[in-house]
Design goal:
By secondary structure, the protein is α/β, with parallel strands linked by helices. It folds into 2 domains: 45 residues; 188 residues, Glycoside hydrolase/deacetylase (TIM Barrel), CATH 3.20.20.370. The strands form 3 sheets. It has a 5-stranded parallel β-sheet with strand order 3-2-1-8-7. Strand 5, helix 6 and strand 6 form a beta-alpha-beta unit. Helix 5 packs across helix 6. The longest helix has 21 residues. The chain is globular.
Length: 254
């Protein structure tokens, strides 16, 4: 993990700086080292692609791309997304929120029955998770996995941290449950815009072989844009494959 390397380098830098304690700029040197370390913690926590605290799969070296959706199952938009995927014969991955499952069991079952991958996106999906203990995180993630398993009779092994935030406690909880953290290489930001053309332009500029695309099956703009994204890939010889196929990992355990 990069966090350990960063900490070690910071300690070494502080030790070396100690030899210059008589230097008039000593205090500024120390402050600079500490500030750099704090900035690395903040960036490492919020940018999952850095693999700072948790080793996540954010892309693949294989040909093709994978489409993923977060925050469902949503009774309004998830069925529309599934209809599009079925029409285009495309398989996707859905990272679902546990507390939404009880009211949408048939929808979750439909996702599975139509050949899509279902992953764990935590049970509560609250920002409070970022400050939770390892025990509470483990309980929350396990509760989501159990909710999924109760519907599809399979134990999900793919996990996407809410908001893409990680820290050492996340790592311990994920490892305890034998989950595999899945990030992304193309973030659509479909929760930040309601303009299909803007969303489409942003995504198409960043797609490359091995990309993992992040959408949300909770947005009208995603439903409006998804057919164009899929058609662009087909027209340009970009294969859309399932997430397990792209990253060569099993989506479910025993």
């Amino acid at each position: 993990m990069k966090h350990k390397s960063s900490l070690q380098l910071t300690v070494i830098a502080l030790i070396i700086a100690g030899f210059f304690y008589e230097n008039p700029y000593f205090i500024y040197i120390i402050l600079g080292i500490v500030t750099a370390y704090v900035i690395s913690l903040i960036c490492g926590s919020g940018l999952i692609q850095l693999n700072y605290f948790v080793d996540s799969i954010n892309k693949s070296s294989k040909d093709g791309i994978a489409i993923t959706f977060d925050d469902g199952p949503d009774p309004q938009f998830t069925p529309q997304v599934l209809d599009i995927l079925a029409k285009e014969n495309v398989k996707a991955a859905f990272f679902v929120i546990g507390h939404k499952i009880e009211a949408n069991k048939e929808l979750l079952k439909r996702i599975h029955d139509e050949g899509h991958t279902i992953g764990n996106h935590s049970f509560s999906h609250t920002k409070k998770l970022t400050t939770s203990t390892t025990t509470l995180l483990r309980e929350d993630f396990l509760k989501c996995s159990n909710s999924i398993k109760s519907v599809i009779n399979k134990d999900p092994k793919f996990f996407r941290p809410p908001y893409g935030v990680t820290n050492p406690r996340y790592k311990r909880a994920i490892m305890a449950l034998s989950l595999k953290s899945i990030g992304w290489s193309v973030r659509s930001l479909d929760t930040k815009t309601n303009a299909p053309n803007q969303l489409k332009s942003r995504i198409l500029k960043k797609i490359f072989n091995g990309s993992i695309l992040l959408f949300h099956d909770t947005q009208q703009v995603t439903v409006e844009t998804l057919p164009d994204i899929i058609q662009h890939c087909k027209n340009n010889g970009i294969n859309i494959v399932s997430l397990p196929e792209l990253i060569d990992q099993k989506a479910y355990g025993q």
